[in-house]
Amino acid sequence: MNGLARWSRSVFVHDGVAHDVHRRGEGPGVVVIHEIPGLTPEVVAFADEVVDAGYTVVLPDLFGVAEAPDSATNSLRTIGSVCVSKEFTMFARGRTTPVAGWLRALARALHHELGGPGVGALGMCFTGGFALAMMVDPSVAAPVVTQPASPVPITRGRGSDLALSPDDLAAVKQRVVDGCPVLGLRFARDWVTGSRFQALTRELGEGFIRVEFAGPGHSTLTRHRQQEGVDRVLAFFADRLRTP
């Protein structure tokens, strides 16, 4: 049987906030944060690839219905629930998502258990920038940002916003200076990402590893999967998380 049936499930609680967490694999830790509408079969399939490459992967279930299909109906339903949730921000500028504290605690716990240089953190679409928020914590050694779409780029300012508070942006920039690069993936014509890749290049300089694919598309690792993107992510994890 495929899908989450092969994954163990537990509940992780931090500061009164609880979410299901699915786990599978052995090796260095990686937190894969799903996109809207949720933990779709495509997200789980990508996570299985990371497991097969030799990692302990945890999948937090933050919103939506686990293993529900990636459909317009499910996406609209999930967006509606996310918009009214106190854990997330879809439109605010210069603000870190409140769920970042929970995600950082999850990364710390995983790193404490497994040891090594740190853990990986990968966000997708609405959660793309969450990996940046997580790298404020030193437990995150391999942050990956894929098609970051929050805040929704309905204005030029929101399209360039990195969904970080000023203090968190300063912490991210210092971590990059200290030797923790950020990998980013997107389709060059994906309007949902706004001008965030330009902003990341401006703020992080050579510390931002920018990978862009030609043509239209959005979900670089799932619905519009690019093998080069998967390979770059796995190579980044190997370089950052495996002890020489």
From TrEMBL:
Pfam families: DLH. Gene3D superfamilies: alpha/beta hydrolase. Transmembrane segments: none annotated. Keywords: Hydrolase. GO terms for molecular function: hydrolase activity. InterPro entries: AB_hydrolase_fold, Dienelactn_hydro, Dienelactone_hydrolase-like. Residues 26-146 form the Dienelactone hydrolase domain. This is Dienelactone hydrolase.
